[in-house]
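Q: Predict the assembly, please.
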Amino acid sequence: MTPLPSAQQLRYLIALADLRHFGRAAQACAVTQSTLSAGILALERQLDIQLLDRKVGKRVVFTPIGDEVAARARHALDALQTVQAVADASRAPMTGLLRIGVIPTIGPFVLPGLVSRLHAQFPHIRLSVNEDLTGNVMDKLVLGRLDLVLLAMPCACEGTETLPLWRDDFMLVLPARHPLAALEAISVERIGTERMILLEDGHCLRDQTLAVCRQERGWSTPDSEEEFVVTSLYTLVDMVADGLGLALLPRLAVESGILRDLPVVVRPVTGCQAWRTIGLAWRPRSPRAADFRLLAPHIRPPSVTAPPAD
Amino acid sequence: MTPLPSAQQLRYLIALADLRHFGRAAQACAVTQSTLSAGILALERQLDIQLLDRKVGKRVVFTPIGDEVAARARHALDALQTVQAVADASRAPMTGLLRIGVIPTIGPFVLPGLVSRLHAQFPHIRLSVNEDLTGNVMDKLVLGRLDLVLLAMPCACEGTETLPLWRDDFMLVLPARHPLAALEAISVERIGTERMILLEDGHCLRDQTLAVCRQERGWSTPDSEEEFVVTSLYTLVDMVADGLGLALLPRLAVESGILRDLPVVVRPVTGCQAWRTIGLAWRPRSPRAADFRLLAPHIRPPSVTAPPAD
DNA sequence: CCGGATGATCGAAAGATTCGATGACGCCCC
DNA sequence: GGGGCGTCATCGAATCTTTCGATCATCCGG
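A: Predicted assembly structure:
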């Protein structure tokens, strides 16, 4: 049985596929050109296939099968590096750079406490935070540009592993002088005739608000000319205070003091399932998946007091 | 930078994880016990983690992280072998064992011609055929026990790559003396009041028949005591001939002569989308994916004459 | 307390990898 | 058209790694 291609050979092939030049690829691999050339030749001999088209001048031209092998080689090398990464992560858990993504309707209310808590608990961790819409942070997650995403479920998180953290109720925010403000709790049917202020497209909270409203048959999306769409929860609250409409806010935002001293009141919504689930998502093959599970208990809404240490 | 673990080391680790015995693992790897022992030690030293618990007697006990690393090692070794397999497949396309799965409502009508055609076209291919329900063949496909599946879409084929081959119309088969037999084509609304004979649960054709019938509002699934459910298309045709009900048959089956000389007539269905798409499915990472695409043109219904060779 | 089984360790031989130097080949410009 | 240049292949020597067989250390059951 011929030996499997070595990690070194795969590195050579991938560098050559990227740079299309033996000398520069060798430089990138920190070896001499002769070594890289011999490595590619050895790979061709071992696999018994032609990876490069050598007749066309002296330019580096991959054969179709060469491209295919290079693509598989990338995957194999990645898998090998993951073995190493798993070992590294276990030897030094909760260290190194953690690139965390978060959506705008969670970030401002969770991150401040989270960052300081993580720094206190895990001094060797370095945090990089990226706030963006659900779709964007999830894209970056699967592309490997983020390690961990804090988001609101339900959401389309194919190809990721998720862990629910806590339930975050939606609460109705309305102008203080609004007739409904007299009620202690407001049933979803009463919202049917009201104008709702929405976040702009792409915010999952927008879709979740619409989903809650659509549980009431009488409700329909406002015409585009009548629509009130804003880009941040802060603006949204301001507009409610101005009497321009009602809005659903996550309890998380309310309890973080987003209402300030504006002339608005906040009421629970009854008669429907009005909440989102805050959760974590990561790549299932992430070497640090075990770390992320350990990290989860430290991600909390600011209002929840820490459980006593044991 | 410490070197990545070698394929050999991963093999040693996996053999040890499987056999839990240095001597036998070494035998399985065709090396001496000392070599395997040294290999494991070297891996532990390179990764700088403890893979085995050595204090407990002399039994081979993996640490939790050892198990984790072994699992990743399996994946990495698999990826390396795939590089090799891609090369092998390209060097000798259309050779070796091809394990093909097929569903019962396609197999009898396509396989006979397909097998002889493939043997003629690719003499070095060895075929292994497995006929089973859609769910079962797809399970075997993703588990790697099949290479290629011939099935009817739409279907839930997550985690697989699919290639549509041709559209297969559904045709209504009814007793020769049935009043509707007088019509040249039968609109789906006329089926609303008829009793349909169905395949048993698990056949995708059953679900597709129900889907067609449900396009007609008046239609509802028969009560279980009134249901006529059979296990094969041949029985189904027999029951139609006996006047027990109507059935939808794929054109593929009709043109393969399943109606024999029974007192039934077959009519096109109008007024709805009544067809299935015959297609191929395989694992996206299959080393022979390129082969499968080349193979597709040779999979045809028996009625279609071969295009002239060019 | 001893013999068998199991895994770790050691030195030597075989094999693989790498380097620097050099060869072969096409291309460009004078 | 020929020399210079850029590019990839080849070669021998030095170095590093892997493997083997032998041996040692330890544990377990009688």
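The CA atoms of residues 104 and 131 of chain B lie 6 Å apart. Residues 7-87 of chain B form a domain with the Arc Repressor Mutant, subunit A fold (CATH 1.10.10.10).
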